[in-house]
Amino acid sequence: MSPAQSVILLGTVVVLAALFGLGRREDRAAVLVLAAVVLLEPLVQPVQVGTWRAGLFVLNLLGLAALWTLSERSDRWWIFLAGALQSTIVWTHLLPLVSPDQFNWTLATVRLGLWCLMLALMGGRVAALVRADREAQPIEAAGSDRRPAASTRRS
């Protein structure tokens, strides 16, 4: 594993754990979907038809279906955008079927870049949750017993 891959894996673990711990039910369900895709990839990677990685295609297609379903049932902007990025990842798995001359490493690099975008997206959600929790905590004004009303709904 290269240093860059190690950093991405560490970022994945940190962001998914934070989102699972801070998020609500919809956030946690999406985290479980994405964690399943990441954890199952090594198991399905050997499933190939010629040079086409059919196992990864099916796994990512199932991840897309799950994220799509979650985005239809929730108001979470990050789940919708994660589903959009996941759909692009699915399409990159189909490109070798259209153009057999396409380099697999190029497509793998594109998918890695899309995953980094997804990590940034989830990191934005974590930052929003942390900010909402800070705003919800009572703030004591100097010499005052008044506390601002806390919002009960996270953004």
Give the SSE layout.
Layout: H1 3-22, H2 25-44, H3 54-73, H4 77-98, H5 104-136
Helix pairs in contact: 1-2, 1-5, 2-3, 3-4, 4-5
**Tally of individual helices:** 5
Ends distance:
36 Å
Percent of residues in helices comes to: over 70%
Segments where pLDDT lies below 50 for 5+ residues? 141-147
The residue-averaged pLDDT reads: 84
Round the Cα radius of gyration to an integer and report it.
19 Å
List SSEs in N-to-C order. HHHHH
Largest sheet: none
> How many strands?
0
Structural class by sheet pairing and helices: mainly alpha
Shape summary:
elongated
The amount of beta strand, in percent, is: under 5%
Structure overview:
The chain is 74% helix and 0% strand. By secondary structure, the chain is mainly alpha-helical. Helix 1 (3-22) packs parallel to helix 5 (104-136), helix 2 packs antiparallel against helix 3 (54-73) and helix 4 packs antiparallel against helix 5 (104-136).
Features:
about 160 residues, mainly alpha, 5 helices, elongated
Give a summary of the structure in a few sentences.
The protein is mainly α.
